[in-house]
Amino acid sequence: MTRLDEKRDPAVSTTAETSIETPPSGGKTPLIELRHVGKSYGSIIALKDINLRVGAGEVTGVLGDNGAGKSTLIKIIAGLHKPTEGEMLVDGETTVFDSPKDSLDKGVATVYQDLAVVGLMPVWRNFFLGQELRKGPFRALDANGMRATTLSELHKMGIDLPDVDAPISSLSGGQRQCVAIARAIFFGARVLILDEPTAALGVKQSGMVLRYISAAKEQGFGVIFITHNPHHAYMVGDHFVLLNRGRQKLDCSYDDITLEELTQQMAGGDELDTLAHELGR
Question: In terms of Cα–Cα distance, which of 58, 77, 123 is closest to 253?
Fold first, then answer.
């Protein structure tokens, strides 16, 4: 499979169930790093011994099936939940997020599956939702300024919308995802956490989102790409972490694994072979 950023020959070996020695950031301090992070809810262990890092200009793909712990991981990085063990580092310094605001203040923005948009509002109102520009002594909405800024910022991301006054519900799913990504970048994000951005999209719309993920990477942003689709992750990812029932099953770089190996690890590997044997296929 051809990546969106470059063509490279994948290696034939995999580092499944072992951590890579050299960070994908090439030895540079990662923008965000998790070390042996775990999360428990009473006697229920949701995450255990998770190691993850993302550097500037890198995409770290976090893969896993339903119930793997991806949502819990997002909530920890986004400041919604505190880990019960391990530590999180931002720019190499141990950091504790007490709220999502703390995460945003550090430049970590999360784009959730529901996108947090109001369908009947125009694109420009959604772009500034909760952070509207105001002017004058009566603090009136600066509608013209917000329209112009929305057009400019979307253009920087390569998003061409002829009418930002149109309701955001009139856009395709891929376009809405891209607006949400551009919004997060405009408001100071250095690390983007994308929660299953292609899950409900068709092939064409998924391709649009993947192109904008690649564009964000090229502009120096760190991206944590949460997905259950190994093909999408492999097209843009530099580093892959696979979760399975709250445990880290895989931790490797792009050069250390092929798409076929990543897909097999994601799909269950030996379990699928056993099932195929039982079914006589």
Answer: 58
